[in-house]
Amino acid sequence: xxxxxxxxxxxxxxxxxxxxxxxxxxxxxxxxxxxxxxxxxxxxxxxxxxxxxxxxxxxxxxxxxxxxxxxxxxxxxxxxxxxxxxxxxxxxxxxxxxxxxxxxxxxxxxxxxxxxxxxxxxxxxxxxxxxxxxxxx
Length: 137
Known about the structure:
A seven-stranded antiparallel beta sheet has the order 1-7-6-5-4-3-2. It is an alpha+beta fold. The radius of gyration is 14 Å and the shape is globular. Strand 5 (about 80-85) and strand 6 form a beta hairpin. The chain has helices at about 15-25, 25-30, 115-135, and strands at about 5-10, 40-45, 50-60, 65-75, 80-85, 90-100, 100-110. It has a single domain (about 5-135), classed as START domain (Alpha-D-Glucose-1,6-Bisphosphate, Chain A, domain 4, 2-Layer Sandwich), CATH 3.30.530.
């Protein structure tokens, strides 16, 4: 992917548990935000090639919200997931067993509005929040 950023995290959980928490809406709403003053009040996912997904990310004070949405282009449970966002950018998420843990690697095409560092830190914060959520279960 051109103009892409890659981030990763090691989650202390088996790959099937990590996949489950990443892909099911009832879990997505529990971790898909970058800071404690945000939340994800809604998520839906039709987990198949051509299936659509959408997650609402919102400031808890009600000042701002947006939908993160797109279409799945590749689904290989529990190791690989790819999608195209509604703005045309592509993303790939790979899950790899590392001992008793799972490495989650996410690559995504940058958007043109925010700096690379801002995009990297925002997506990494969400990925770190995912790790924290899964490991708390």
